[in-house]
Amino acid sequence: MNNHELFQRALRLMPGGVNSPVRAFKSVGGEPFFTARAEGAYLWDVEGRRYIDYVGSWGPMIAGHNHPHVRAAVERAVRDGLSFGTPCPAEVRMAETLVRLVPSIDMVRMVNSGTEATMAAIRLARGATGRAKIVKFEGCYHGHGDSFLVKAGSGALTFGVPTSPGVPSAAADLTLTLPYNDLEAARALFAEQGKEIAALIIEPVAGNMNCIPPVEGYLQGLRELCTQHGALLIFDEVMTGFRVALGGAQALYGVQPDLTTLGKVIGGGMPVGAYGGRRELMEQIAPAGPIYQAGTLSGNPVAMAAGLAMLELVQEPGFFDALAARTRRLCEGLQRLADAAGVPFSTHAVGGMFGLFFARGPVRSYAQATAADIVLFNRFFHGMLKRGVFLAPSAFEAGFLSSAHSDQDVDDTLQAAREAFEEARA
Ligand code: PLP
């Protein structure tokens, strides 16, 4: 069965042929390939073509695909059973690991996805403050909960439906939106409605409108604003947690949120999310407290084994320094090639995540990100794909490196980019 045949079958059976929108290649055009196998920095499709992968399963695969240490942990766990419905020791080890490594987390609750984590964090913030409104940022994506599909990033931005049909206005009206990296706008909103705001949720490095780091002092400013107005600061570190640094963006920028959401890397490739924070907040979650949240498969033993093994790998000395250095090398190389080809281009790199913009930089805002040349990006994407390099199939997604990407992989990527830039410009 080849890629095209599989996609035709899939289109008849699943909306858009996929189980998550951006996978369908709609914004870049063409058809997705179907992966048969993944190892290290590479994916192989069902036709045997190899791709250097900069998507990394959308973030989790920070040590590369099918890492033997993670695989062995999963194989060991599977022998003892797939799910118990009682507490299991791996959950305790996972909680200990997250509390030790993430500065602001005293207690944690495991869930099954990033979406679940952010939905629960918002409920907790509303329950704890007795307030209803939340603040999010244009172009930030926090999963597909109703409260967040208002001026959202990722697939919602890619497909130009920033607020989804099906989100009742009663829910959307409780979500206030702000421009990213604009502290004055946040100050003005809080001055007006601060007393009604339960929480402000932010991707501390935005990764769903391409990749945009916070400007100097921005996260600190938001921290002060939330404290001043009695609102909770939630860092959505589903993407940035164990990706931009050990301990996440809060460790990198030295800002303590009240609540943190996690996902992706902490599951090692299995469906896992988590939320955690200050003890007196987390103790309000059932059954310790009255705010309800539950999950049949939460803390699943096989998923915990995968996540714990992945978290062991990222704690190896020098892991993030090496990852960040290689990510910078890729971005600097791409910048040189784009400049040589006369293509308007800029990049951001934070730890093992990066953004490529077909616009002169630095790109600091949602408005600038959406003004980048998407036609040029799409041509570049396909130029890279046909040369065996898989970038995220949207101009509004961050890219990811893993520790399995070698200097040779980066050199091969740059060689492909040299031709792809020329082709895109033509
Ligand atoms: N929050 C952020 C910052 C994300 O990037 C994502 C997914 O990409 C989510 C939440 C949602 O996570 P999930 O897709 O696991 O539900």
Automatic annotation (TrEMBL):
GO BP terms, alphabetized: protoporphyrinogen IX biosynthetic process
Cellular compartments annotated: Cytoplasm
Chief site of localization: cytoplasm
Broadest EC class assigned to this enzyme: isomerase
Modified residues (N6-(pyridoxal phosphate)lysine): 264
UniProt EC number: 5.4.3.8
Keywords of the record: Aminotransferase, Cytoplasm, Isomerase, Porphyrin biosynthesis, Pyridoxal phosphate, Transferase
Transmembrane segments: none
GO terms of molecular function: glutamate-1-semialdehyde 2,1-aminomutase activity; pyridoxal phosphate binding; transaminase activity
InterPro entries documented for this protein: 4pyrrol_synth_GluAld_NH2Trfase, Aminotrans_3, Aminotrans_3_PPA_site, PyrdxlP-dep_Trfase, PyrdxlP-dep_Trfase_major, PyrdxlP-dep_Trfase_small
Catalytic activity, reaction form: (S)-4-amino-5-oxopentanoate = 5-aminolevulinate
Protein family: Belongs to the class-III pyridoxal-phosphate-dependent aminotransferase family. HemL subfamily.
Subunit structure of this chain's protein: Homodimer.
Name of this chain's protein: Glutamate-1-semialdehyde 2,1-aminomutase
Organism the protein comes from: Aerosticca soli
